[in-house]
Amino acid sequence: MPGGVHYSWGQITDARRAAPGAGAAPEAIGAVAFRCKGAEPTVKVTRVESIVLMGRYHFVRVHTDEGISGVGEVSPMNAGVTHAMVEKALAPIVVGKDPFDIETIWHQMFHRPYKLGPTGAQLEAMAGIDIALWDIVGKASGQPVYKLLGGAFRSDAEVYASSMLRTMTPQEEAERALSFKEQGYRAYKIHSATPWMYDTGHDQTLDTVREMRKLVGDDFGILVDVNNAYLPHTAIKMARRLEEYGVWHFEEPIPAYDYAGLAQLADAVDIPIAAGEQEYQRWQFRDLILQARVDILQVDVIKCGGITEFKKIAALASTFDKPITVHNTQPTVGTLAHLHLWVSTPSCIYPQEYNIEPHPLRDDTPIWKEPVLVEKGRMRVPDRPGLGVELDDTVVERLRG
């Protein structure tokens, strides 16, 4: 960089405030983007704060010495485990780093503690930190995250209603689906069998789909998730029956690790086979594409290592002409991170998953100051810098632990 000039974040902030309009000063942003390799960071991460709410929901807040912080979310599989992963294994790697060096930080978080992973808890914990770093960079640049990811490929994102209940009768589920159609949704997903049952548990998939189709008509999408319930031969039979009802998207019909069985199923039926919530990084998705030959990839940003890895998986999906319909069960920060990806990623062409069940952090005690919610089956990404929301510290402190 000519003259070796370095800008502090205070100068960047001052330049942005002085500039007309809401954007950051181009020369300041350029200075950040092109700092000399090996130079002392002009801003540093000072703390990685692991936040567990209600004993289950896990968030990460990354703090810097310039007063800008970012927030991310971790998949709530086991908050005690991922909390320890953040605090003991990952935070020491991140503290002291320049938050703009996201690729370097991701690489080090992935490789240094690799014997603790590199799937499951490690990638989930990494996701919380990575999302928070993108939030910081967006705030520092005065830009929403989707702008940093390539800009808006679409103006907003369509979502489908994802029903998580397994206790409803087929008629009750059908009536619920109709109610969401009336709210503006164009598709609805059921969870209609005992997970991992290997053909032996409770299953009301066909009865539910039959009743739903009667009520919602032919112009409404029905998606079926049976959570790894069948053996391959049974899944083939079930898929052929579901095709008769125009079901779109048959999700995890057999054990997720059975790539040969998934390939057998995908080759035998016309209904799109979806999978991916059990995969955590690009190499697993490579195998899901090449070996399992599934039709739809279900990446989850709070499981797969965050926004940085999601974009790499999306590039892989695009290379093989595979659409992405994400796995998305957390309706606050996780959904918001997904939203920035949905509008900026060409492969996210279908309606994306949205959890319609009551959620304490969205519905009872909202943890964000300016919630981003669904309107008539669609979500609009905020144009505020970073992810576009701030946590309500009063609520966070009340729910912590």
TrEMBL record:
Cofactor(s) needed by this chain: Mg(2+)
Keyword presence, Transmembrane helix: no
Domain of life of the organism encoding this protein: Bacteria
Residue ranges constituting the Mandelate racemase/muconate lactonizing enzyme C-terminal domain according to the UniProt record: 170-272
Sorted UniProt keywords: Magnesium, Metal-binding
Pfam family, one: MR_MLE_C
InterPro entries: Enolase-like_C_sf, Enolase-like_N, Enolase_C-like, Mandel_Rmase/mucon_lact_enz_CS, Mandelate_racemase_C, Mandelate_racemase_N_dom, RHMD-like
Example GO BP: carbohydrate catabolic process
GO molecular function: hydro-lyase activity; magnesium ion binding
The protein's name: Mandelate racemase/muconate lactonizing enzyme C-terminal domain-containing protein
Species: uncultured Chloroflexota bacterium
